[in-house]
Amino acid sequence: MIFNTFSYFFLFLLPSAIAFRTASAPWRPKILALSGTLFFVYFSLTAVGGVLGAICLALFLWEATVSRLYKTGSRWCWVGVALALGILAVFKYWNFATGIVWPSGANPWRWSGAFLPLGVSFFTFEFIHYAEDRRLGRTEAGTFWEYLAFILFFPTMVAGPIKRYQDFLPALRAPSPNWAADWERGLTRILVGLAKKFAIADLLTTFTVHLNETDIAAARPWVLPVWLLAFGLQIYFDFSAYSDIAIGSARLFGLPVKENFDWPYLQTDLAAFWRHWHMSLTRWLTDYVYIPLGGSRVGAVRVYANVIAVMLASGLWHGAGANFLVWGLWHGAGLAAHRGWRVLRGESVAGTGGLSVAGRFGAWALTFTYVNVGWAFFIMDLPTAGKFFRHLVMGWH
Amino acid sequence: MKTLDEAKKWLEWFGGVRDRPPGGDHPWHFWARGVWWGILAILIACFCGQTSRFLYIDF
What we know:
The structure holds two protein chains of two kinds. Chain A is mostly helical. Chain A has 19 helices and no strands. In chain A, helix 2 runs parallel beside helix 7 (144-151). Chain A is globular, with a radius of gyration of 22 Å. By secondary structure, chain B is mainly α. Chain A binds chain B through residues 1-4, 48, 116, 118-121, 158-159, 181, 184-192, 194-195, 197-199, 201-203, 205, 234-235, 238-239, 241-242, 244, 248, 259, 263, 318-319, and chain B through 8, 14-17, 19, 33, 36-37, 40-41, 43-44, 46-48, 50, 52-59.
């Protein structure tokens, strides 16, 4: 969907990239804003959200207008953060939150026509980043059109990588002039992304489609880890493929976008895994949740609580469901345990330690297994995940 | 470990992540790129059309 359609490449990416690169400097932000607008409306109408989804374009225009009021120390920045959180709360968590208060289908506040605006989980994070960084004086304002180009830059609008204005603005003002290298590398990246998506991620659906209650109950226990491992590989190849296409697409414009994955499954501890998996989200959560909570500059108990709180927030961001909270808690507990283990051994929390080859292999195997067991809570709801583990451990039906 | 690092660098170059292959450019890299694009095009043509959505688009 979207990145694997002809419309994406031939209606949007190639014409916009060529127009951007051939335009004079004052026109470039306007070209990005216009192409992002058309992209948002087109794919809202054809893929996600429908007419109401397309109307949500107003959120970008509102944000770009209000953003002109964001200044160092300004309360308007708080308004911007609150608005972005409000957008997320209404569109993504309304039914989940009211469903907690009024469970079992008797929810009088249930929004039956609920829909998700295209890319809402990602563009709201960029709104928050800009408001907060303006409040702290960490970024310049740019012009209205430059900010609109930033939030409507379509290669990263739908699923990241989550950008930073400080990185984007200088590139927007002086994009890479090296067409040949950018297009050769960018197209290679896009082709690799498409091949990873079609030839690996989609093929793994053969296994992952069985991760449902009926198939789990009928399966032999030994096959369950194979299905779960298949999902672990699928989500990596799928999302890294998406990021490849996004980063490759941005490169066609001559605009560099930071990496989102860096061999996460080769890491030998959970903290390193999160520094290499969905890196733009980890950096965002560190800067806008972990550090404001006090980070690691508070007492020991608070540090562990902060780590768990951040991963709970990450879980909830990934989906409005109890299973995502458990997934976040699984990783929060794992990170806290890893931190505790390091502290106990008197090692640096961020270091890799001086492990032997066998030790490194053991650490890798433990990390890989822990992450992949955790995916059970990501792909299945809690009752199904419970049945999965009961059947796996005890062969129960 | 050195071999693994080298392999990662080559894969990153073939993946479009890295601008230059380990050890710098050689004339045969041009042809290697061409063959690689051909392989990718064949893979895409063979496996496309499974119509699955990306997992991470508003999950």
